Amino acid sequence: MKFRSILLLGMLTAGICYSCQQNEQKSATNSTKAESKKLYAKFEPKGEKVIVFAGQDLASLGGLDDYKEGYTDYFPVPAGITLYTSIAGGADSYGDIPQEGLQGIYETFDNGNGPSNMSLALADTTYQYSALAIGLSLVNHEKSVAEGKLDKNIQKLGEYLSSLGKRPVFLRIGYEFDGHSWNHYDREAYVKAFRRIKTKLDEQGVDNVAYVWQSTGWVSDLYQLEEWYPGDEYVDWCSFSFFDRWKEAVMTDFARKKGKPVFIAEASPTISDHMAKFNGDTKETILSNPEQAEEAWNRWFVPFFQTIEDNSDVIKAAHYINCNWKIRPMWKENMTFKDVDARIQTSPMISEKWKAKMEEERYLNASREVYEAMIGN
Fold this sequence. Notes:
Elements: H1 2-37, E1 50-55, H2 58-61, E2 80-86, E3 89-91, E4 98-100, E5 109-110, E6 115-116, H3 118-123, E7 131-137, H4 142-146, H5 151-163, E8 169-173, H6 180-183, H7 187-203, E9 209-215, H8 222-228, E10 237-242, H9 251-258, E11 262-267, H10 276-279, E12 285-286, H11 290-310, E13 315-321, E14 340-341, H12 348-358, E15 363-364, H13 368-376
Parallel strand pairs: 1-2, 1-13, 1-15, 2-7, 7-8, 8-9, 9-10, 10-11, 11-13, 12-14
Antiparallel strand pairs: 3-4, 5-6
């Protein structure tokens, strides 16, 4: 009798184990099927991967004959680089620095934010397997774009984009659209302008662009974001900026609702002081200062990586701005950036930790395989 009970118990246990194994296998199979059925956005990496971008000017980027001592001279070549231009001439969003329109594409141009020259960077073999993220300013021009008055400029932009062949381009149209105090976009005109730019580029046959819709990350709530949204058919990626008020960002929730991946399109260590809520002021953060670097790591870098990893289902790209903000004329009066030097390489401690992160499988740096995978999706 005792032997029979033991035998029955053994058979029951074996059955349970077999059932558990089948359930695990079924779960794994279902997960694989779900992954294969998922509709990926343009250039979105599969799985819990993150495309690493660096920028936001040639000096900060480095890796070029005339621009050394930048990000790429110390860390793996990023899978993407970020540079900026404006749809037309006029005043810059941070002062009266003249803009020529589509500047910094074919020639080196510095509007006070550091030198930009997309053609120069992409012609160098250093970035042969890097995507390009373009911050396209519409400041003071969103109504003209919406009304079709700048279609020739859109055409010129399209010609440049097409000239890049299959090079993946992430086009951030009117980035930080809800940053009213510096961009002061008219909401209805902005939405129409975003749609018109995509429509016109589609008509030109431009097919190497993912359209990125970027908020400040702290101004708008979910309802307000909906009012700014150009529409699912116009937006490939949702996006936001990650600075000192990152806790207030709701874009990841919005993107989940829309079924879109997220691009942290601007990120640099800024730490709020006690007056930040009132005047935007941040603490002095010079990464070459060991004490300030330690505070920056704990209060900004750790939350930055944690935010990415806690939202691995939607955050699929991130851009680190590796610049010395405090020496750039554009930011000398800006309460957020005027006392910030965010160059990682100036801090041995942060450099070591950053390199360790970049070695993780999650973070995608430049390689032929990563580049071809982007093109293939």
